[in-house]
Amino acid sequence: MIMKTKSTPVSRPKKNARLVRVTAPALSARRSFSVIAIATSAGGLKALSVILGALPADFPAAITVVMHLAPDHDSILAEILHRRTRLAVKQAHTGDVLCRSSVFIAPPNHHLMVAKGGRLELSSPNSEKVHHARPSAEPLFASVANIYKKNAIAVVLTGGDGDGSTGVQIIKEQGGQVIAQDRPTSENFSMPETSIQTGDVDFILPLDEIASKLLELVEADRGREDGRTPAKKLKAALKNSSRRPAA
Q1: What is the pLDDT of residues 51-104, one digit of tens each?
Q2: What is the pTM of this model?
Q3: Hey, where are the domains in the chain?
Q4: Alpha-carbon dihedral angle through residues 38, 54, 81, 139, given to the nearest 10 degrees
């Protein structure tokens, strides 16, 4: 199959850890904001830690995350990631509203979707699984694409099965962009590879280059919207991102 990818730059926390309250201004579906939807499975904790840990505290986009989790156990993924990034991290609930510089994690056994105005919705725990998973990337990617159009960014990270491969096609149909983790840095390349085979992946990148690409894409979107040149802001953001918080 010929791919049409446009570029191939080819401590467990204590249970009483306090999460930062999400207080950033709410996002609407205005074109001036970017929303990033990330999907992962096997090896996802490391991948998410690397990416989120490299983003600056004032990252001007909202991030949503689906990771395949055991359905019968409470998840402390949000608490773990909160300790590894300067961004605000929380487990998503129906009624939450997307915020800049914030990360919303799908809870176990619920699909995560985005509705008008950036409002989050969780499916019933009895809703149909997709690719044998609940949560699945597909409902998240499709909803983000339908609301945020060209300002939607999908990221497919290490993981098994083909989850996300349909969603990335919807992201591209609506004018958004897609990043996939490359084979050498993936613990399980099945999820990224299946998305790549659709021909709708724009960038196939090593894990440690994904955060800088997200900064580049988000700042470029903002620069086009308000007429500013994003180069200086991007350079400063990348410099600040090198100062990572302690794990």
Answers
A1: 999 999 999 999 999 998 877 767 899 999 999 999 999 999 999 999 999 999
A2: 0.79
A3: 34-240
A4: -10
What b/e readout covers 61-72, taking b as 16+ CB neighbours within 10 angstroms?
bbbbbbbbbeee
Catalytic residue at 202?
A: no
Known active-site residue 68? yes
Choice among 96, 161, 163, 182 that is catalytic = 163
Catalytic residue chosen out of the listed positions 68, 82, 110, 131: 68
- Which 8-state DSSP code applies to residue 149? G
Residues 6+ apart with CB under 8 A from 16: none
- Which tokens belong to 70? 């055991």
**Helix axes of 207-226 and 231-241: crossing angle, nearest 10 degrees:** 150
- Residue ranges of the chain with pLDDT lower than 70? 1-32, 73, 221-247
Please give the CATH topology (third level) of the domain spanning 34-240.
Answer: Rossmann fold (3.40.50)
Which of 45, 4, 10 is CA-nearest to residue 198?
A: 4
Q: DSSP characters for 180-235? A: EE-STT-SS-HHHHHHHTTT--SEEE-HHHHHHHHHHHHHHHHHHHHS---HHHHH
Instruction: Render the burial of 211-247: b for 16+ CB within 10 Å, e for the rest.
Output: bbbbbbbbbbbbeeeeeeebeebbeebbeebeeeeee
